[in-house]
Specification:
Elements lengths: L10 H14 L13 H12 L4
Protein name: Uroporphyrinogen-III decarboxylase
Length: 53
């Protein structure tokens, strides 16, 4: 199984994530894209860029 690592966020990034969580009412998780396998990372990016919302 592939290992996916959580991103290391600075204080400003963490505050922004917390603000977004409160605004949209969901829990957000930040992943370290440099630690993701190339195929999975590019697949996520292409899916994310084409999302209708």
């Amino acid at each position: 199984m592939e290992e996916i690592k959580l991103a290391q966020l600075d204080q400003q990034q963490l505050e922004k994530i917390n603000e977004l969580e409160k605004t949209i009412g969901v829990t957000l998780v930040a992943y370290d894209s440099s630690a993701m396998p190339a195929q999975s990372a590019s697949a996520y990016e292409s899916n994310n860029n084409n999302h209708p919302s």
